[in-house]
Design a protein that fits this description.
The chain has two domains: 31 residues; 86 residues, no CATH class. It contains five helices and two strands. The chain has a two-stranded antiparallel sheet with strand order 1-2. Bound molecules: zinc ion. The site of zinc ion (ZN) has 8 residues, from loops.
Amino acid sequence: MEDVRTCPYCAEEIRAAATRCPHCRSRVTAFDPERWYRDHPERRVAGVAAAVARALALPVGAVRVGFIVLTFVHLLGPLLYGALWLLIPFRPGGDAPIMRALACGRDVLDSVLGERRRETPNGSRPERHNGGETEPPAAGVLPLRRLSS
Ligand SMILES: [Zn+2]
């Protein structure tokens, strides 16, 4: 039992999971979020081109050429590649690197803010907590010690 649907271009019955109609060769999916991850077998670098190719049902070679061509247009290729790398999860259903980075950054921020809240109860100044060790010594003490050593 297969799920079928109708091709919007030629009205032939096609499989629901098809990305291209076998009858009229039309692309019948614009974007497939199920394939929006980087761990495809054809990945070479970080899998961004493979993810884009799978999700958009494009040949991975064409996507790679696209990135290379965009490199000569104001270095858009690497910028786009980097941006997509941040946005595409490595495994299906996984978190994108930028989500992990944001979660990590929030943890760091929380601990820093928590630390600061603990250090300054009632608004006392945290730089005075070392007990005045940096106070200059009484007059006469330091010069004597320097002479004896
Ligand atoms: Zn068709």
